[in-house]
Amino acid sequence: MQTAYADQPDHPLLKRYRATRRASLSLCEPLSVEDYGLQAMPEVSPPKWHLAHTSWFFETFVLKPYLASYRVFHPRYEYLFNSYYNGVGAQFPRPQRGLLSRPTLQEVFEYRRHVDAAMADLLGCDDHAQRDLIQQRCELGIHHEQQHQELICTDIKYCFSINPLLPALLPAPPGAATIEPMGMRWLEFAAQDVQIGYQGRDFHFDNEAPAHRYHQTGFRFANRLVSNAEFLEFIDAGGYETATLWLSDGWAWKQANAARHPRYWLRQDTTWQEYTLYGLRPLHPHAPVSHVNFYEADAYARWSGKRLPSEQEWEVVALQQAVQPEHIAISLHPLAPATQSEVAQMFGQLWQWTRSSYAPYPGYRPGTGAIGEYNGKFMCNQVVLRGSSCVTAPGHARASYRNFFYPPDQWQYTGIRLADDL
Question: Can you give the pTM of this predicted structure?
Answer without folding.
Answer: 0.95
